[in-house]
């Protein structure tokens, strides 16, 4: 066992921020577009790929399948001519739920795929029944044995068949898996009650740029006309709306004027509406730049997470942190995942006044938080703790940074660029006096 201590983020709070921050490509787009390269028998040139642990893990899995990937800065060159493996190993899939989404393109391209069930994660059980049901409706024989999903397309053509699929819930991943599978299927597919998230639209546009025939992405009905093959593509990932929203909250919680660029303002409508309801002003400076002009008397507002265009579950933790310092009472309700409130206990250690009732957090704003050692439980929870630390009096020490590094592209460096006093403690000397926290299992 290694005795190297994990790094810790030290934040000195209540320092005003200022300036502009560059938003990276969207994590959730990049991950699924990477699985989408499996559909292509030629070269894929993908730009604006964020530097994230999750992207590294996805590259590892695709390399295992036989793809050749080269990174140059923020660009990935993927040669998807030869797929040498149709089975994914559990060690790789369990690191990254999104790698399960490869089952759709693998099956469409090879007619066979074996991918382990990704299992639950910190925020919920997260089954894949909707993915599996949709693939069956497209003619695949699917059975689950020893924790692995075995899927095979019968018949000599080995091509999936177009189908009319209704999703019980507008699952992002299921919509993406089935849309990718349908691009190479025989005949027409309709996905009803489809997810409308911008990352679904980015994936659809990426597939269209390879020659796929897809209509309706971004609405709740997506129609796909299968084609025999797809061709080479040059694609740039859309900006990350969740990273953008996190920086808007950084401005709000530190009462600092911050500009974010590039962004697609339409992807942030629900987040902007809630910030404005609190009393902040969000100014659009040009096509793809937003600036927060914060109020010094932010009012509490209620939030309920919903599929897009509703308020994103991936912004819930950051807003919950923001509400701890707002004037009045608010209710934050999580409806998408069943266990996504573990940051509440850590925020309470910083002096927040929150009561949890199932998936409702009842928050009474306090005038000030106080810095404390805190532990991240998942990706967005870690961002919420960093945000709380920026506003808290004194020092906050955020542990469990592997969560943050999974999905934020150099968040600490970007915050330093805005003037935040934030640094990574990494050496044994720096970590010697830091209490090592453990997150209690529940
Ligand atoms: C994606 C995002 C994640 C985001 C989530 C919701 C990626 C890589 N991740 O995750 O950041 O928080 O969308 O916006 O894009 N469900 C089922 N059966 C299924 C599939 C899903 O019951 O077959 C349930 C899940 O357990 C969850 C809800 O549906 O409660 C939403 O999940 P889903 O939209 O599928 O999220 P992901 O695609 O996993």
TrEMBL record:
Q: Could you tell me which residue ranges the Enolpyruvate transferase domain spans?
A: 16-414
User: 2-(S-cysteinyl)pyruvic acid O-phosphothioketal-modified residues are where?
Assistant: 121
The catalysed reaction is: phosphoenolpyruvate + UDP-N-acetyl-alpha-D-glucosamine = UDP-N-acetyl-3-O-(1-carboxyvinyl)-alpha-D-glucosamine + phosphate
* One of the GO BP terms on file: cell division
Described purpose of this protein according to its UniProt entry: Cell wall formation. Adds enolpyruvyl to UDP-N-acetylglucosamine.
Q: Which family does it belong to?
A: Belongs to the EPSP synthase family. MurA subfamily.
Its pathway is: Cell wall biogenesis; peptidoglycan biosynthesis
Q: What class of enzyme is it?
A: transferase
GO MF terms here are: UDP-N-acetylglucosamine 1-carboxyvinyltransferase activity
Q: What positions does the entry give for phosphoenolpyruvate binding? A: 27-28
Query: Where is this gene product found?
Result: Cytoplasm
> Is Mitochondrion included in the keywords of this UniProt record?
no
What's its EC?
2.5.1.7
- Give the positions the UniProt entry annotates as the active site: 121
Q: Name one GO cellular component term.
A: cytoplasm
Q: Which organism is it from?
A: Prochlorothrix hollandica PCC 9006 = CALU 1027
Protein name per its UniProtKB record: UDP-N-acetylglucosamine 1-carboxyvinyltransferase
Q: Which UniProt keywords apply?
A: Cell cycle, Cell division, Cell shape, Cell wall biogenesis/degradation, Cytoplasm, Peptidoglycan synthesis, Pyruvate, Transferase
Residue positions binding UDP-N-acetyl-alpha-D-glucosamine: 97, 126-130, 314, 336
């Amino acid at each position: 066992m290694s005795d190297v201590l994990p790094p810790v983020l030290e934040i000195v709070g209540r320092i005003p921020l200022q300036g502009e921050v560059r938003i990276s490509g969207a994590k959730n787009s990049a991950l699924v577009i990477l699985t989408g390269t499996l559909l292509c028998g030629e070269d894929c040139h993908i730009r604006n790929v964020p530097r994230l642990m999750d992207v590294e893990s996805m590259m590892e899995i695709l390399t295992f399948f036989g793809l050749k990937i080269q990174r140059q800065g923020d660009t990935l060159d993927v040669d998807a001519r030869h797929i040498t493996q149709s089975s994914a190993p559990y060690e790789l899939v369990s690191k990254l739920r999104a790698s399960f989404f490869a089952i759709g393109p693998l099956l469409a391209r090879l007619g066979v795929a074996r991918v382990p069930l990704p299992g639950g994660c910190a925020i919920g059980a997260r089954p894949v029944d909707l993915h599996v049901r949709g693939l069956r409706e497209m003619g695949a024989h699917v059975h689950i044995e020893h924790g692995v999903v075995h899927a095979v397309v019968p018949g000599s053509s080995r091509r999936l068949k177009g189908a009319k699929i209704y999703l019980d819930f507008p699952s992002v991943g299921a919509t993406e898996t089935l849309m990718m599978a349908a691009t190479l299927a025989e005949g027409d597919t309709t996905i009803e009650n489809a997810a409308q998230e911008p990352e679904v639209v980015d994936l659809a546009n990426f597939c269209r740029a390879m020659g796929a025939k897809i209509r309706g992405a971004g609405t709740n009905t997506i129609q796909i006309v299968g084609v025999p093959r797809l061709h080479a593509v040059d694609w740039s990932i859309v900006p990350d709306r969740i990273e953008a929203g996190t920086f808007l909250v950084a401005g709000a919680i530190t009462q600092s004027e911050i500009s974010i660029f590039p962004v697609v303002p339409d992807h942030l409508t629900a987040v902007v509406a809630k910030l404005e309801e609190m009393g902040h002003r969000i100014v659009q400076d040009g096509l793809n730049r937003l600036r927060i002009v914060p109020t010094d008397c932010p009012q509490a507002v209620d939030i309920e997470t919903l599929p897009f265009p509703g308020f994103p579950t991936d912004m819930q933790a950051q807003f919950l942190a923001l509400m701890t310092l707002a004037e009045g009472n608010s209710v934050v309700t999580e409806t998408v995942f069943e266990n996504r409130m573990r940051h509440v206990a850590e925020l309470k250690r910083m002096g927040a006044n929150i009561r949890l009732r199932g998936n409702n957090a009842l928050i009474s704003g306090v005038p000030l938080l106080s810095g404390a050692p805190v532990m991240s439980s998942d990706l967005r929870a870690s961002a919420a703790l960093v945000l709380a630390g920026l506003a808290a009096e004194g020092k906050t020490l955020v542990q469990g940074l592997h969560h943050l590094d999974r999905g934020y592209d150099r968040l600490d460096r970007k915050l330093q660029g805005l003037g935040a006093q934030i640094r990574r403690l990494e050496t044994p000397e720096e970590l010697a006096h830091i209490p090592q926290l453990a997150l209690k299992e529940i």
